[in-house]
Amino acid sequence: MMSLKQTLRHHGEQHKGTDLGGVLQWALLHIESQDEALAELREELESEERARLGLEVAQHHARQAIESALQAVNQQFCPPIELARDTAPHINLMGGHYKDPDYLRGQLAAPHVDLRESKPRKKKETA
Predict the structure, then answer these.
(1) How far from the centroid of its chain's Cα atoms is residue 71's Cα?
(2) Cβ neighbours of residue 58 closer than 8 Å, sequence gap 6 or more
(3) CA dist 69 → 11, 63, 66, 73, 119 (Å)
(4) What pLDDT, in 10s, does the model give residues 33-58?
(5) pLDDT at 113
(6) Which of 45, 66, 79, 102 shows a CA-CA span of 20 to 30 A to 28?
């Protein structure tokens, strides 16, 4: 089976010197020039594709490096310490509203949680 170029060349030779032969030769030259332009575009596309793949690989490596650096920065230096919620300061603060020798003076006595290491001072007797 003959290709289009071979067919045009064959028929162009048969009709050499006629208008039909000139048109066939022009078509053959036009197709060949378009083939060359397409080949150049294909080469350019392949080189751009290789460059794109290279950039994607570089981007992937950079992303992995950034993620590992971020993970190292965010890594905890000490294990977390679980703290219990201490409600004693609130209880002691509320004790200031009632009669307590270590807090504000009032009419009523209220129990409180003692957080001190030493004993509280004695209540003064009022006469």
Answers:
(1) 13
(2) none
(3) 70, 10, 5, 6, 53
(4) 888 899 999 999 999 999 999 999 99
(5) 61
(6) 45
Question: Stretch 90-99: mean pLDDT, rounded?
Answer: 54
Tokens of 7: 């067919």
Kindly list the distances between the CA atom of residue 27 and the CA atoms of 8, 33, 68, in Å, as whole numbers in the listed order. 8, 10, 61
Instruction: Supply the pLDDT for residue 87.
Output: 57
Q: Full-prediction pTM beyond 0.90?
A: no
> Which residue type, as a one-letter code, is found at position 16?
K
- How far apart CA 47 and CA 40 sit, in angstroms, is 11
Q: Both tokens of residue 72?
A: 């190292």
Cβ atoms 115, 92 nearer than 8 A: yes
